[in-house]
Each structure stands twice: as C-alpha cells, then as structure tokens.
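From the thread on structure requests for the teaching lab: each student submitted one protein with a one-line request. Submission from student K.M.:

"Model Cytokinin riboside 5'-monophosphate phosphoribohydrolase from Xylanimonas cellulosilytica, tokens only."
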Amino acid sequence: MSTDDGVAQQGAGYRKGPVLLRGKQIPEKTTDQRLLAGPADTDWLHNDPWRVMRIQSEFVEGFGALAEVGPAVSVFGSARTPRDHRDYADAVQVGRELVDEGYAVITGGGPGIMEAANRGASEAGGLSIGLGIELPFEQGMNEYVNLGVNFRYFFARKTMFVKYAQGFIVMPGGFGTFDELFEALTLVQTHKVTGFPVALVGSEYWQGLLDWLRGPVLDRGMVSAADPDLLHLTDDPAEAVKFVHARGAELAAELASQAAAAAEPPEA
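Reply posted by the TA:
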C-alpha cells in the first residue's frame, strides 16, 4: 500500500463487515489474510464474535429439529426426583395423558421428573422430546427421549421450550424449575407471547407460592389481581392435562376471534 493509499484509507475508514475502523484501529492484515494464514493459536474459538456464531447455530438447529413436532406441551420439574417417588409416577402419568390428548411432550431431557414425563410419552407411543443443556454435572439425555437436541446456552434452550409449546405443566422442582416457571409467566404477563395455560401439580408443594403471590406480592402492588390466576393448581395429573387442553382451546378461540374482528372492514 502506498503512502497516499494509506492516507486515503485512513479518511474513508476500513470496513470490517458492519464495523467501521479508522486511525490506529485499522488492522495490518485483512480478515482473508488471517483466515488463509498457516496454523496459529486457537484463542479465537473462545472469543465473543465466534460465540455469536455458536448461538446462531443453536437456534438454527433447534428450529430445524422442532419445526414439525405439532402440538406440544413442556413439562418442567426436578432432575433430583427418585424413581420411587410419587412425583415421578405423577409425571409419567402426565406424559402418557398428554400423548393421549394428541400432544408431543417436551422436557429438559435429563433424569428425575424430566425422565418420567419422557417415559410416559414414549411408552404411550408419542413424541418424546428432550432439550438438553451442557452442565458440569449433566447426566446426559435420558433413555426415553426419541427426539433430542443439546444446547450450550440456557437462553437458546428456553426459546425452544416456549416457541414449540401450547402450554406448561410444572411439577415440583428447584431453582431451574422456578426459573422456567417465572420465565413463562413473565412472557404471558408482558404480552411477549400469546397466552398459554400453566398448570402446577402438587398442592402441598406449590400452595405456599400461591399464598405468597396472593398475599405480600399482591398487597404491595407488585402484580395485578389477575396475575396469580395465570396458574392452575391441582393434585391430579389428569386434571392438569385436561386444564391445559381446555384452556389452550379457549385461548386459541379467543385469538382467532380477535384476528377475525381485526380483519373486518370498518363501517362506512
């Protein structure tokens, strides 16, 4: 590059994709030069721009894998629930009942409640989906998943739970379950998504949460009076499935009615 060329480039700037660089920010080598250079260190694999590509690939792979699953319900619950616990048996029933109602079952793909719901779905001959996550203590995809997708990033995985589900059934669980539950409620409350039903199974476990929401949280005006009603509490797995199915149909009908009304021409 001549001196005049260099001065001209300094003024016009150096385009690096959508990024404009000037002055000392202009690199000595082009992107192609770095790409076609010989072997070098691999630190670039761990930098943020490359992570964006990984994130993008997770969304593309998730959308591609799940786009044709049809009606589905996400089931959340603890990975620590043992197989001889009542909650495990209830989750197996939830998975089975959902398949009987025509739904695919989506879980986090791990052990405990997730395994139980996948087991019920698989044994009922339905589509049993697992959305796994990379964790230091992750035990891998459970054996009852017949369509599994693994994720590095929680937020990409959460998108799949919401995008491809017509409702949620939440069994007893810990921080991960709370996170998924309140993520869903927040999206509905803020109208980031169209409404969908959320059922909690296990009154002994969840009643205190509802009392807190309807008590101190509502008393301080932190939620509206209708917000706690977004949750339906039951001890019967079959009732949870029936609620999700019936309430989902009601919400779909309301949405269709609103769309039809919006499409009507204004009166002259």
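TA comment: The chain has one domain: 57-252. The beta strands are 14-16, 19-21, 72-76, 104-107, 128-133, 147-151, 168-170, 198-201, 231-234.
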